[in-house]
Amino acid sequence: MRHDIVVVGGGPVGAAAALSLHDAGFDVALVERGAAPPRWNASDYDLRVYALAPASQQLLDELGVWDTMVAARVSPYTRMRVWERGPESALQFSAADAFRSQLGWIVEHGLITSTLWQRLQALPIFTQAEIESVQFDDGAAGVNLRDGRRLEARLVVAADGADSQMRRLAGIETLSWRYDQRAIVAHVQTSQPHRDTAWQRFLKTGPLAFLPLADGRASIVWSADDAQADALLALDDAAFCDRLARASEFVLGDVLQTTARIGVPLKLMHARDYTAPGMVLIGDAAHAVHPLAGQGANLGFADVAALTATLVQARSAGRDWSSPRTLARYVRQRKAHNLEMLALTDTLYRAFRPSLPGLRGALGFGMGALNRSAPLKAWLAGRAAKA
Predict the structure, then answer these.
(1) pTM
(2) What is the 3-state secondary structure (H, E, C) of the chain?
(3) I need a surface site. Which of 171, 297, 360, 383 has the fewest CB within 10 A?
(4) pLDDT at 93
(5) Architecture of the domain defined by 69-109+179-266+361-384
(6) Alpha carbon 62 to its chain's center
(7) What local confidence, expressed as pLDDT, does residue 295 receive?
(8) For residue 196, what is the enclosing H or E element?
(9) From the CB of residue 123, how many other CB atoms can be counted at a distance below 10 Å?
């Protein structure tokens, strides 16, 4: 079976890429090693949520899925407060600082994926598809599945996550390290309303975020060293809620209830190359960041928009849209920005570690100074709106 493009990976970024490239007029097939995502069920709340920036919202709107998501369950947030000691001294951003009505939206992983897949039904989709090998020859790629089927394409788009099999098969090396931390994720009920605000406190062991949900609860992402994460996950619900409220300095009052908790290992990863002959990496297959800036999904969606625009521009100009020269344009556009975000999140993570108390104090002072600077706040709020 021959196609223009084969996208490997059916998560939010891979599904968005397949749909975006299909809408742009390319013959696209999607390969997913797992099953198709279940249809959206409003009675289930997915613990995995994303803080989508306006640029990501624009992409999803262009793909014709945003209105469906809004009708299902999306939580806009209009303010953000970040602090180290004392929420009353928090650095505060508002949508008005960026001349917008919202800073972003909290959306569940399952809602994004299932909504995108509903629009993908017109495409050839291969689920439960294990990839055996990939071959590249004279501008064509061959993807061999373990069941004996073979897909051929001019370009393979690898969107199969931070542990990308496609990246390994292409021999692309990575720069990576683990933080020896896990992000504890849960949904909690608090005694005070979240007020459409995203809250984040920098603790000695990592950031603690409260993200507003549509039903009035908050999604928490609590980054903690492995030993502390083990202890927190072992607590009963009442003890965990008490520890969480204290860690947040009761910014939303008492924590009354929590869902089940999961712990997600944290790491930084960046591919040394985004391309190989006949292949291009997007999303977590190319880069994985610490969640403290909430930019992982936004970076992936920005990759999708940039890749589609690059290929369309080359095709419109009569150039070979799958050539290394064309793909180099995509790399130049995205690699520097992604590296900037990786460096920023890693620097912030290390700056608030207890081994650097002087720098932590300076950063705390800097938050107060920044909070009094309207132009700088406007600039940062604008940056937060982009991936």
Answers:
(1) 0.90
(2) CEEEEEEECCCHHHHHHHHHHHHCCCCEEEECCCCCCCCCCCCCCCCCEEEECHHHHHHHHHCCCHHHHHHHCCEEECEEEEECCCHHHCEEEEHHHHCCCCCEEEEEHHHHHHHHHHHHHHCCEECCCCEEEEEEECCEEEEEECCCCEEEEEEEEECCCCCCHHHHHCCCCEEEEEEEEEEEEEEEEECCCCCCEEEEEEECCEEEEEEECCCCCEEEEEEEEHHHHHHHHHCCHHHHHHHHHHHCCCECECEEEECCCEEEEEEEEEECCCEECCEEECHHHCEECCHHHCCHHHHHHHHHHHHHHHHHHHHHCCCCCCCHHHHHHHHHHHHHHHHHHHHHHHHHHHHCCCCCHHHHHHHHHHHHHHHCCHHHHHHHHHHHCCC
(3) 171
(4) 85
(5) 2-Layer Sandwich (3.30)
(6) 19
(7) 75
(8) none
(9) 18
Tokens of 22: 């299909």
By the 10 Å C-beta count (0-12 exposed, 13-18 middle, 19+ buried), 271 is classed as buried
Rounded Cα–Cα distance for residues 220 and 200 (Å): 10
Q: What is the pLDDT of residue 377?
A: 44
pLDDT per 10-residue tile (average), the chain, 387 residues = 95 98 98 96 93 95 98 95 86 84 94 97 95 84 93 97 95 87 96 96 89 97 94 98 97 98 92 94 91 77 98 98 96 91 68 52 46 45 51
Q: Which two tokens stand for residue 194?
A: 């979240």
Look-up of token digits 């007020």: 195
Strands 2-8, 28-31: pairing is parallel
